[in-house]
Design a protein that fits this description.
The structure is a homodimer.
Chain A lengths: L8 H8 L3 H9 L6 H14 L5 H8 L3 E8 L5 H15 L4 E6 L4 H13 L2 E6 L11 H5 L4 E4 L9 E5 L1 H14 L5 E5 L6 H16 L9 E3 L3 H12 L7 E4 L2 H14 L5 E5 L13 E4 L2 H16 L8 E4 L2 E3 L10
Parallel strand pairs in A: 1-2, 1-3, 3-4, 4-5, 5-11, 6-7, 6-8, 8-9, 9-10
Antiparallel strand pairs in A: 10-12
Helix pairs in contact in A: 1-2, 1-3, 5-12, 8-9, 10-11
The structure holds a DNA duplex.
InterPro entries (chains A, B): HTH_LacI, LacI/GalR-like_sensor, Lambda_DNA-bd_dom_sf, Peripla_BP_I
Protein name (chains A, B): LacI family transcriptional regulator
GO molecular function, one term (chains A, B): transcription cis-regulatory region binding
Amino acid sequence: MGPMRRPTMTDVAREVGVTAKTVSRVLNDDGPVAVETRERVLAAVTKLGYRPNLMARNMRVGARDAAIGLVVPEMGNPFFGTVAGGVESAVRARGLTLIVGSSSETAGLEQSLIATFLARRVSALMVVPAASSDHRHLRSERMAGLPIVFLDRPAVGLRADCVVSANREGSRAGVAHLVAHGHRRIGFVGDAPASLYTRRERFQGYRDALDGAGLPFDRALVEAGHDMEAAAQATMRLLSLADPPTAVFAGNNLASMGVVVALARAGRKEVAVVGFDDLPLAEALDPPLTVVAQDPAGVGAAAAEMVLRRLDGDRSRARRTTVPTRLITRGSGELPPP
Amino acid sequence: MGPMRRPTMTDVAREVGVTAKTVSRVLNDDGPVAVETRERVLAAVTKLGYRPNLMARNMRVGARDAAIGLVVPEMGNPFFGTVAGGVESAVRARGLTLIVGSSSETAGLEQSLIATFLARRVSALMVVPAASSDHRHLRSERMAGLPIVFLDRPAVGLRADCVVSANREGSRAGVAHLVAHGHRRIGFVGDAPASLYTRRERFQGYRDALDGAGLPFDRALVEAGHDMEAAAQATMRLLSLADPPTAVFAGNNLASMGVVVALARAGRKEVAVVGFDDLPLAEALDPPLTVVAQDPAGVGAAAAEMVLRRLDGDRSRARRTTVPTRLITRGSGELPPP
DNA sequence: CCGACCTATGTCAACGTTGACATCCGCTGT
DNA sequence: ACAGCGGATGTCAACGTTGACATAGGTCGG
């Protein structure tokens, strides 16, 4: 019951009466080994409960760890969870392990997570940047040839591959949908301005749609809320304006939930809504929620493919991949203005 | 642009004109170092872009990796994402890194993930078991003193710590709530029978509540659906029975969504519903969804604390921690039978 | 002015594994 | 009978780092 030392290859070898090298050969299917020896080795392995030490192996072989590090802002947000899932299945097919860490949307934590991944000699790095983080410190890694791919939001201060959603176009389409149904005062509820790439893009799409329809932009209709409750309160502020919006565009999944909750609380079912990013319950809402659906698993998969290409030696210049979005009309965007 | 070798401690040492050991001393704040030497070393470190090699360090020190491996069935499910988030923040406070992998609810993948974690010499293992997996193979690890904690579902064939929700009690309370509002035919939509611990417990709670109220159990009212769409179809089957239920209890978050979607599609708002596990949009549904809320972050945190205690040397026998659930009444459970 | 002592640094080996190369054996072909 | 070959195994060093111990100067008290 003591905290006994883990058995090593040498222990197994001693048990069988051979050298560590022979055990190594058996375990890696390397070089010739007598059938009987192989069997005895395997028996000893299970008997002693031997587990190969990947750290020692990687070090000797000089190879990088067969792991890929992924940094996401929050694990609890299903969007990032699904992205991670998409990455994982693509990466697993190649025998690579995915290591996920969460930065809590904090630049400092993101950096230290990246540092521990690098110290672990991961063979590639995938990052969903935290708001206001800077990636200049990764330049030397890029130079050294480490594959680095950014997801959902591009790198700051670093030319690197990235995979993003068609934020601006999708947003434009979503708002245009509201415009097409007669709305002229359309609120925007999203993240805090300036900080986040996705918020900037989606906001631009919102403005594009207004401009395209010749509608005036009213700063008073733009509100921020970084989580669901804050978004709900932002929505309440919009509704209590002297000249309130007849429709609201929500800039991300949490904002959508906040908007929907606020409208439900206020009993304002007649306000039209379009949300960016689909929600599993969108269909069950009253009215069912029209959304600009992203493809989070697709983003993850595309990023993973990019990484695999880089690992296979693709040295071409950094590329940006845009994953299309899709307007799913369910009703909430088709409500006419009063 | 060549794939040049990463600089090692020796490279830094050569650059400065000292030995690797001195560099090591600087980087670990070990032993005395002249102020000037320290500065020159640090300068060389940044100049060369040196990153310590954790694998080599861990090997030399013989310590286990400062990482904890967590296996979850699916990353995309917000329940597990939130659990992982709870684990992460608790574990990070101790300077440990969390490595998350997903088993896709498959026993085989779970085993191979665990194997790579063990090969990486993680200092502890946390597992949300896949359906129908068996953990006898971890016995030798437990003997060797590796902390292993199971979350949400207990281990199979292994005495080990585990942290679970109050499934049976919560479920009983949820169903009792429906009973209290006059329902006598209450459907159950959950995972496939037998396979999953949580499903068994929650189903028992359902039966407890029926028994407690002297209501008959009708096998026809029990349906299974492993994802949202399947749960929706299961609900449709219940509704089309000759003698349909007037209320439905959903056994997990996906089932809840499926039930709610199905009722919305069928326009059957009068059917009462209580779901196990809270949903972010529960409040925005019509009627707002009454749920038996779990505390996923709390489950993660409790499990992390358990692990930390074990790492601190607590050798007491395996313990089971139960995290309470809470009935949140919002309306859907209070609908009277027609 | 010498030994005790402290500071700053170096030397060496070891962690567990595997590549490069060596060795030993029995068998084949001539 | 002997060279030659291929199969089975061993030996050694090295990967990057650090613990244990050693060394080279300098300071200080008596």
